[in-house]
């Protein structure tokens, strides 16, 4: 009887392992409180755009997506999380993105980033967040 119980236990364990769904975790960093980055993550998160546009057919029909959102007050902690391989996507201003790219290259730990686009605080371009300030008397200006 004990052998039969052991067999049944192993059988159900094997069946349950075979039915485990595959989970794809996607870590996303946002800066909801930084004015020039606020819309990027919030729009995608609140309108559930990832859930809507991630593939759900073909080889992904039985996939469960675990989307984990992290809100940061600046680009530096988001870069640290990217460097630690805890985030897959993040949005930040252009300067922290450039600093992050150089940090990733220097760390040489296999984390690579791609600069996709700049979030703008204006319909006419980056404005203050992508500009450079110099005194009017500066000979370069």
Structure description:
This protein has helices spanning 2-18, 38-46, 49-53, 75-83, 94-107, and strands at residues 23-30, 64-71, 89-90. By secondary structure, the protein is of the alpha/beta class. It has one domain. Strands 2-1-3 form a three-stranded parallel beta sheet, sandwiched between helices. It is globular. Mean pLDDT is 73; it is low at 127-135.
Whole-number average pLDDT? 73
Strand residue content = 5-15%
> What is the total tally of β strands?
3
Main sheet specs: 3 strands, parallel
Topology:
Blueprint: H1 2-18, E1 23-30, H2 38-46, H3 49-53, E2 64-71, H4 75-83, E3 89-90, H5 94-107
Parallel strand pairs: 1-2, 1-3
Helix pairs in contact: 4-5
Structure in a nutshell:
Helices cover 38% and strands 13% of the residues. The protein is an alpha/beta fold and 141 residues long.
Features:
alpha/beta, 5 helices, single chain, 3 strands, 141 residues, 38% helix, three-stranded parallel β-sheet
